[in-house]
Specification:
With 94 residues, this protein is an alpha+beta fold. It contains 4 helices and 3 strands, in the order H-H-E-H-H-E-E. The protein starts with a helix and ends with a strand. This is Helix-turn-helix domain-containing protein.
Length: 94
Amino acid sequence: MAAIPSLRKAFKKLAADQRITTWHTALCLSLYYLWTEHGTGKQVQVSRSSLMKLTHIRSIVTYHKCIAQLQEYGYIHYQPSYHPKQGSRVTLLF
């Protein structure tokens, strides 16, 4: 299972980063889960509602803040989709 070493590497990086909160970790784990289920390469297509459900984040403000910070910190590349039926694209950089 090639995904496990990548997951270990990601969690070591997250644990060492003092800026990372529980919400960031939950988002990364959920993105990683969706990538293993549906992704190809390092990119996955997601919807805000599915990520919020997986992470138990109830605030849209918190969700957007954490996604923006994960991109700013270099963990993901986020390409929002404004189409109601098409999910946003997230590239995992860890």
